[in-house]
Design brief:
alpha+beta, 16% helix, elongated, eight-stranded antiparallel β-barrel, 12 strands
């Protein structure tokens, strides 16, 4: 019994300062119980409430960001300050399908907005990245800056043929016809991504703004010039310009990321938003042989517009399925 009284006395001694009490020289409690009850209330309860609120907030933050580690202590989930690099996972899906059924014609899940490799002037890849400003918020960016050209050279027989003509085993002389093709494609996108969840499956949602433009042209150079002695004076193209394409889009997205390995995730998203695309007419320049009133012939270039001009508008979900990506995070 004395032991328990000593413990209670010690607890009261520790609490005494909070109630404005002191112990006398004989270690006896100064004020009476009534005095203690009548003493003004101190902010002890307020301190406890503030401390509890801080603990709840800290727990909520920890639960939201989460930390899952591998057996080697590596974080599985993306963290505040991480950089992310995004790849289109469609080729991987195709490869896996081909691997399991022995064919080469499996189709993956297509990307569903114009910003992904539209193939303006050739197939290209849009580079995607992220920057996590905190554990639940990321800025997204996408970019494609593409320029390219192709040159083809064909050997053709000279026109007109020399006189006298070549005698076998000698061959007729040749000249070069050259075809040059070039394209440009610039696509940019920015977005804000929010992340929720603390397990290996993380929900993502947000919005993106995308813009892109591009075009291409083909030039033809002929080894046989247009001249009166040329036996082939039919009109021939010397330049073709593809109609320039301009696209702009604003979309919302939502999906998940599944962390299959530390800092590596497989993501899937659906999108819904606005898209505007405009493509102009094609311009073709041809070389023609014309004869004037005096009977003198000469070469004349004529440029004409042709093809179909297209303008499109849509406010819809992604038209070709979910966007599937492979993401790598690092600091």
């Amino acid at each position: 019994m004395n032991k328990y009284l000593f413990i209670v006395s010690k607890k009261v001694h520790n609490l005494a300062p909070e109630f404005g009490t002191t112990f006398g020289p004989n270690k006896q409690l100064g004020p009476t119980i009534n005095q203690t009850l009548k003493a003004p209330k101190q902010p002890t309860m307020k301190k406890h409430l503030l401390f509890s609120a801080a603990m709840v907030a800290a727990f909520a933050t920890s639960a939201q960001t989460g930390e899952i580690t591998s057996n080697r202590g590596e974080n599985w989930l993306s963290q505040d300050g991480d950089w992310g690099l995004t790849f289109d996972a469609t080729p991987i899906i195709n490869f896996a399908g081909n691997l399991f059924n022995g064919t080469t014609g499996n189709s993956g899940v297509g990307l569903n907005n114009f910003f992904s490799s539209t193939g303006i002037g050739g197939e290209g890849v849009v580079i995607g990245g992220k920057k996590l400003v905190d554990a639940n918020t990321a800025y997204r960016g996408r970019v494609r800056i593409g320029f390219g050209s192709n040159k083809q050279t064909n050997l053709v027989t000279v026109n007109p043929l020399p006189n006298p003509a070549a005698v076998p085993p000698n061959l007729d002389p040749t000249v070069e016809d050259v075809t040059k093709t070039g394209y440009s494609a610039i696509q940019l996108g920015v977005g804000l991504e929010k992340r929720v969840g603390s397990t290996r499956v993380v929900g993502i949602y947000g919005g993106e703004f995308n813009i892109g433009f591009g075009g291409g042209k083909t030039k033809y150079e002929y080894g046989n010039a247009f001249a009166a002695n040329n036996t082939n004076l039919a009109p021939r193209p010397i330049e073709t310009k593809q109609g320039g394409t301009f696209s702009v889009g604003l979309q919302a997205f939502g999906g998940i990321e599944w962390f299959c390995a530390p800092k590596i995730s497989l993501g899937g998203e659906y999108t819904w938003g606005l898209a505007l695309t405009s493509t102009g007419h094609t311009e073709t320049t041809t070389e023609n042989w014309v004869i004037n009133d005096a009977g003198v012939g000469s070469s004349l270039s004529i440029t004409e517009e042709g093809g179909t001009k297209q303008n499109s508008f849509s406010l819809d979900t992604g038209i070709s399925g979910a966007r599937v990506s492979l993401n790598f995070y690092f600091q």
